[in-house]
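Support request, please re-run this one:
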Amino acid sequence: MVVRKYNDELQYLEKVNDYCWRIKKGFQPNMNVEGCFYANSHLENLMFEELKTSCNTNTAGGFLPAVKQIANVAALPGIVGQSIGLPDIHSGYGFAIGNLAAFDMNDPNAIVSPGGVGFDINCGVRLLRTNLLEKDIQPVKDKLAQSLFDHIPVGIGSKGVIPMDSTNLEEALRTGMDWSLSKGYAWPEDKDHCEENGRMMAADPSKCSQRAVQRGLPQLGTLGAGNHYAEIQVVDEIYDKNSASKMGIKEKGQVCIMIHSGSRGFGHQVATDALVEMEKAMKRDKIETNDRQLACARINSQEGQDYLKAMAAAANFAWVNRTSMTYLTRKAFSKMFNTSADDLDMHVIYDVSHNIAKEETHIVDGKEKKLLVHRKGATRAFPPDHPLIPVDYKSIGQPVLVGGTMGTCSYVLTGTECGMTETFGSTCHGAGRALSRAQSRRTLDHKEVLKRLDAMGVAIRVASPKLIMEEAPEAYKDVTDVVDTCHMAGISKKCVKLKPIVVIKG
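Re-run finished. Output below.
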């Protein structure tokens, strides 16, 4: 492959407005549609610096910048609209993290790609509210941090405390949060405020390998490591009082809990198994891609359907996982404040997925089409009155939960009609990495990070010092830059800003 110089690349990039860039056909080979990415002036500088660095390495392999990954996705069979990069985008496996794309399900050549979902299937975020205020938490903050750390298993090798055997796991994979409800780990109304009501009906546990089952059995109700966390947060700003009120967020200083986790080793194994089968399918069906990490199969092929059924089972695993941790969180708070979780108003505001592929209906070129929308590091953000969002949120649009980094802040957004038109009803999912994990370990000192967090009044419990360096705020983009870009571009709307006071990490 011929590697073009940085200045040659720039001719294919065009600034559409202050918050969006177009990637023209020709930037990468065989593009079927154009690409685009959303960024303000600061974030676009990061994108161009990454692109320039890759050109200066003078190699076609190894490091592939996010902008090229967006263009490579634009070359996949059956893609419609554009390949879209959100402001938190950064390099990933196959698709960049923060890249979304939709494929026409009526096109016999259209594909599904595990690289467009990710290894942590249905990694997502759940937000709980309480009727507590920051002044209620501060006197017991350290005790509460320890209690949460004791209740929720964390770290790479953590094992869940939720009783589980192969029969129960199969039922959980098939029925998602309905299993949690039947076992008493969820409140009936929790489902109403969960994407897909906490259950993908297409799930078929028989499409998941025994290895996936073995990895998943001990891990339900565990946080895991990496960027996963449980945080006690307080409302710092309310931008949209009406929408916040609909979610039960009434005032500054109100306490919420955010849980960020996914399908753990189970989902990772489902993705790993599927990639092996899809490489075989590509040879059989003569499917070619610009990047071998974009291994894929036709949606209607046996391999494509098997993956979607296994992916749905992994998505159900993730919802049961977050539900189990909600149960453990309610127990920890109930114990600390010597009252019931119901009395503390510990209701689920919403639960969103940001690593998933879903069948959805969208308007493309003026026509209604049935699409398979891949969101990898992207959050569904449907507008007001959309039929797939909860009744009590119809007037405001779907809540979107955007997690920040340790010691910074997180946001609640709502979906918009503009987002429905421009990004298949999608927006950002988090801050997005600015430094690799290896770079973070080389350049940051975990003691300094801890000292800064302490000075900010953040109580932290973490299983590994190495993780503190990898997940330090400096390792990420500024989440406010990311959220403001989405807000100014109109693809989602700012509602609430949250700041952490307790952080639990693996």
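Residues 226 and 467 are 7 Å apart (CA to CA). The radius of gyration is 21 Å.
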